Amino acid sequence: MSRRSLLLILGLLAALVLLTAAFDALGIGGQFVPNRGGQPPVAGAGDEFPPAFLRDLPRVVGALAAVAALAGYGLLIGALAARRLGTTVRTIIGGPQQLVRLGLSGLLLAVLVVGTLLLGILAGIVGLATPAFAFVFAMLLTAGHTAVAIAAGRWLRAHAGAIEHEPIADLLTGTTALTIVSQLPYVGSVALGAAVCVGLGALAATGLGAADRWRPPPLDY
User: For the whole model, what pTM was predicted?
Assistant: First the structure.
């Protein structure tokens, strides 16, 4: 990993920690109520877990855990399906109009899938197939989020002057940047939903072969 990429990732992580720590200090988004009575926690009173730093800084810990989990999932996908992931990433990198098109198609697909699951639950068809289908759909959403994170990381690294081909740096940069945006009140939820829809739309497009009509077939990522 190049020095420029490493500094960019560390800077984004520092920004994430500072932002979430400020939100924790201001009580934005809710937080655990620490023991402020001046007395040490009593064993068995339920006050000793989670530890003090987890109670005082839940958003910091949660954000860092999200970055680690999403990056780990992205590395797993990259190891198991590198070509498909690269195809999806290159489909996303296509300009604002393509992002809108992918986002709308992903949103429509998500509504159809969630509606089907709800109808199945309301109709009493809750067998092993429904939880399994929901799990697979959740994994697809996360895979789409990973593809968007890599595309965002590539864009950020390019604008920072890092032109080396470093997929892991793209993943870490984009995942951290998207986590920062997701922490913002109100705007974060909308941005995260949009990223997931774009990723889902890109997965659907590459799976159905539509991406080949939008962009040339890519090489392995």
Answer: 0.75
